[in-house]
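Q: Two folds, back to back.
A: First:
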Amino acid sequence: MTDTKKFITRCITAHMAVLGPVAALGIARKIPSLKIADDGDVLALTGDPEAALKELQSAYLLFAGETSQAVMRTLEAAHPALEHRA
């Protein structure tokens, strides 16, 4: 699994913890390039992983605003190698 794919999985699972699994998975599953398991794991990612991450972040931001920003800041702090991509 690529670093970006792992980061996307962590992004989804973190949002599941904050927003609830129904909302977080519903948002993630609207991203056409992602196939997501019920536990938030990325099963398949087609196309550009960074574009998928940006689309997912935008969707969460639109839905949850500052809450999503806080989740992403926490994830980026834990994964500084990916911070520039997020």
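A: Second:
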Amino acid sequence: MKYLLLFTIITSSIFATEISTQLDTSIKIPDVSHKSQESVKPILVDGVREDTWVIQAIWLEEQSDFINSAELYSKLYNATGKKEYLFKEVSSRIYSGDKVQESLAKLKQWSSSHPSDLVGKRLLIALYLQEKAYSEAKIIGATLIEASDKEEDLELVATSYFYEGEYEKGIELLDELYRKTKNEKVLLRIVAIMTQYMDKNDDAIRLLETHRRMDNPSSDAYKMLIDLYVKEKNLTKILEIYEALYAKEQKEEYQRRIIEIYVYQRDFKGVIKFLESYEGNDEILYDLYKKEKLFDKAKKLAKQFYKESKEPKWLAELAVLLYESADDKNDKEILDEMIALFDKAISMGVDDSVYLNYYGYTLIDKEIDIDKGMEIIGNALKQQPENSYYLDSMAWAYFKKGECQKAYKMMKQVVDQEGVDEIEIKEHWDKIQECMKSTFISVNG
């Protein structure tokens, strides 16, 4: 699952970051500027003032030089016995991984003498986890959550159980934390543990579905739920979650996934209904309306597109839609309107060979103006001389004019390229062959 890295068990360095943040305000640079030299004697460590060492240690931390910052904090702790320096030393050791056992021994001794100090317990747990001493971490963790109900403490202790493989106990603690805080990140971590380590996909799905219905989930929660349904191969639920996610965040990638699923299911009416629910999908809808023969809706959009853009191709599109939607394709009024639209589109610069072939073939097939149709098809063939559909149209024109040999020669190229599987090609080929036979009989009769 791709969320493994996002929701993986918290590493010791993260503990160090959180704990270090808590400790930053604990280090106070000694300030004696307002007191007389006689009343306050500065503490010297190896002959250098304490505050000088502190400033240097903080600077080393900022440079991510945790090995040397730990050494300075150790020096300060040994000289002053101040817990703040011990904690900062331990924090730096966790980051650097250097002399961890040494710091662990010092912290264990100090924590034993100060059992009520919670920061010491947190650091001790982090060190134990760093050293993979998970049982010891759990023991300290038990005392920590007895004394604290802070979110970070419950999560820290839960992590020690996860490291030990006691997932049920860890999830129990995280569940307690989630009920208190409703923090989605905690829920997603529970789900990640359930699915990655416990084979509890169904339970994880139920948790996320409840969260989806009752709360305001982030996109991370939706995506995790999608991943789980992908694992279950539940395409219906995947689609449902993507649609919910798109309703929340109208991103193009979500829309693309939704369309892909509908197309995979061959549910074009479903994708149309989905797209009609949102603005900005008109061009996709136009193609779908044509595919599903929803001509009235397609014509409405084509008129809108022409009004907005004045692009003549939309006049050609309207001409096609007008003819395709006609109940009676021999209706003179319909044919006249179609011709007017095509002629206007061509006069305004439309020269797409697809439109030229459609218009030219219609003029030929309906025997409206065969010569004009041939001229238009000729322009299409200039663009694509080998196009079998355009050759078929021209062969049909020759047939309509009774020029069977020309029709046969051209149609033979089409059949050689495409075969006779398409109904229209077979129909044309059969009639042209009959024409050739009739011509042969007439000539030799």
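Q: And?
A: The first helix runs from residue 12 to 23.
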